[in-house]
């Protein structure tokens, strides 16, 4: 099948569409993933501003939510149609849309609900293809955290690698998946990835800029240790896994509260401190797992200052690699992951790793919106694939 995975992360700067050809091999034990490419499109300024204005802790209205659900759905639909045309020659079989997370209802270590906007009907109408969407709620209904859902795909990609490999995604929120040679796998959100750095840049520039391009500000600054210690006092970092978080916690108000009582800092020092916070909390989360390599992806990998700090914080013999070593570009890995989750859903196969999310058991994830043709579900395979092999078949 040719499947297009659609993704917009917690940085909400753009929508990514990655297309893959997915084929079962070895009696279904392996899923062969042939990457067909990635296309991206930024949210247009008015939509991005409306989304930023509606996110917690800002108040919003149901009218705003309806408007955002429609306009985000239309943005996803336009990119899905483009991806089908440019990457699949108009022959995509399925669209898998993560949507745009606007709220993740976590309290006292439990997740009670989640909300992703981007109405899938717009995607189905624009492409004529069936759409799998709303992946997270079923895992939550089964007692799970609903995140990180990419953990199942990470585990399938990491199997067979030596030592104790870990996958790290540095989006707005950072999450990791680790696969020890003995013992159960582990996955959880470590805390902010780019979220606080982006919030600081927007505040410093009055919204003109959304992020620290090439980590230039962070690279030019010095870490302010008192502020770093104040930020590290956040209780979330000491919660046991499984756990998830989001911008409901790590937003500009969180940063402002930490800055109260601090003398004004140069922008460079503030960004250096926030980059060190991300690097420190990621490394602190990885250290007890005794990982031997970290395979990184996400927007944070394009920040050289952050990556340099992460190398400093990790134990000396822990390799820090780009997800390209797995055959998937760092910018596209999450979109490819949701293409795989969509494929699993259509085939009636579980899309969660219950030991990682805390769900009561494996669950088929997502809701299905039919395309133009009559909906015909493929037969359910005898077993789910255990690993992913990336690239053309040998």
Automatic annotation (TrEMBL):
<dbReference type="InterPro" id="IPR043129">
    <property type="entry name" value="ATPase_NBD"/>
</dbReference>
<keyword id="KW-0547">Nucleotide-binding</keyword>
<feature type="binding site">
    <location>
        <begin position="9"/>
        <end position="16"/>
    </location>
    <ligand>
        <name>ATP</name>
    </ligand>
</feature>
<comment type="pathway">
    <text>Amino-sugar metabolism; 1,6-anhydro-N-acetylmuramate degradation.</text>
</comment>
<comment type="pathway">
    <text>Cell wall biogenesis; peptidoglycan recycling.</text>
</comment>
<keyword id="KW-0067">ATP-binding</keyword>
<keyword id="KW-0119">Carbohydrate metabolism</keyword>
<comment type="function">
    <text>Catalyzes the specific phosphorylation of 1,6-anhydro-N-acetylmuramic acid (anhMurNAc) with the simultaneous cleavage of the 1,6-anhydro ring, generating MurNAc-6-P. Is required for the utilization of anhMurNAc either imported from the medium or derived from its own cell wall murein, and thus plays a role in cell wall recycling.</text>
</comment>
<protein>
    <recommendedName>
        <fullName>Anhydro-N-acetylmuramic acid kinase</fullName>
        <ecNumber>2.7.1.170</ecNumber>
    </recommendedName>
</protein>
<keyword id="KW-0418">Kinase</keyword>
<comment type="similarity">
    <text>Belongs to the anhydro-N-acetylmuramic acid kinase family.</text>
</comment>
<dbReference type="Pfam" id="PF03702">
    <property type="entry name" value="AnmK"/>
</dbReference>
<dbReference type="GO" id="GO:0016301">
    <property type="term" value="F:kinase activity"/>
</dbReference>
<dbReference type="InterPro" id="IPR005338">
    <property type="entry name" value="Anhydro_N_Ac-Mur_kinase"/>
</dbReference>
<keyword id="KW-0808">Transferase</keyword>
